[in-house]
Amino acid sequence: MTDTPAVLSGYRVIDCSIAMAGPFAAQRLGDLGADVIKVEPTAGEWQRFAAAGGATGNEINVSFLSLNRNKRSVALDLKSADGKEALRALVATADVFLQNYRPGVAARLGVDYESLREINPSIVYVSISGYGEDGPYRDRPGQDLLVQAMSGAMLSHGRAGDAPAPAGQYLADAVTASTAFEGVLAALLHRERTGEGQLVTVNMLDAVTTLQMQELSVFTVGGKPQHRSDEPHAHVYIRAPYGVFRTSDGFIALAFADPEQLGRLIDEPAFEGWTGEIEGWTKRDELASLLQVKLVGNTTAHWLETLGGAGMWVGPVYGYEELVVDPQIVHNGTFIEYDHPTEGRVKTPGFPYRFSKTPPRVDRGAPLVGEHTREILAEAGYSTDAVDALLAAGTAAAPATAPLAEAAR
Length: 409
Fold this sequence. Notes:
The protein has helices spanning 21-31, 62-67, 81-91, 105-109, 113-119, 144-150, 171-194, 204-211, 213-220, 259-266, 279-282, 284-295, 300-309, 320-323, 327-332, 373-379, 384-393, and strands at 12-15, 35-40, 71-76, 96-99, 124-129, 198-203, 242-246, 251-255, 313-316, 335-340, 344-349, 396-397. It is α/β, with parallel strands linked by helices.
């Protein structure tokens, strides 16, 4: 543990987002030391009650737990005048305001950028939407699967004629979260240089589309259409062999192998004289089909040693059970563990970046609904009696007794 202040120590973030993209972005800011205040409805954010995989947890389900560490919770009714006033008091103390309301909702609540900049002209205001703040799809639901489907990416892998398949993770949400995180850091750097706050808008469709910088440029600049092979292939714009192949006891991933060298290693004379840059394109289906016949004849371990030993790009295909115990994952410290006051020992993915002087850390796990309502409103200037009045009116919420959060490193 280091006593050096974290990268974003001293910055305050008001997180009014829900679900995954916004909360994940705000969590990244908290991991770097920002004081992230999660503003929830008095009954709690929707994600608290939507348990991915049915992992409900004790008092906090795993979905919420995984996206809301290093935050404090204040529970306010933003449809009430007093709740809005409390939020405005918090905004006056903040550096960043983050929301992913449906377009138009922020304005109806009086928490749009123009309204909040009157309170705090230097605020960095981040608005996340599904398709954009305006335009023909403005009011469509911005949901991960729907955005993936529109992005074109599903037709860049798999067999010709097969149904398009989505990614095995919430890709659109995660990429949007990283994009918003980058936007916050860039806007804060601008503010450090100029003193100016600004509005930052991020939408899921653009985030996933621009992620495909290379693939879409091949289409728009190179004029190459997406053409899926009859045989399984992991990407339409990459030559064979490239994909996942069955072995006698599992699967391997193989990328960019030289066909002629590969033929010698697997005893396939048909590959004699073949090159990656010619037959790798013109005979993609034939290459994949013949290769599969050979690879299924021996074990994963055999092919990893045989092909990997020859310098080919080959690797195992993991499930989560294998991933979490992989030696490199363990060496990297990719997963972190900490104690949570209601959920016990927690093991989750940690931080995707390293800092030699100011490493990220977990100071608190995901909060209970309104766990920090009293202390946060007190910091905004509310007296104990005023907070009690808000709680009695139902405008704010706090647990009867907040658990002692055990700081974890």
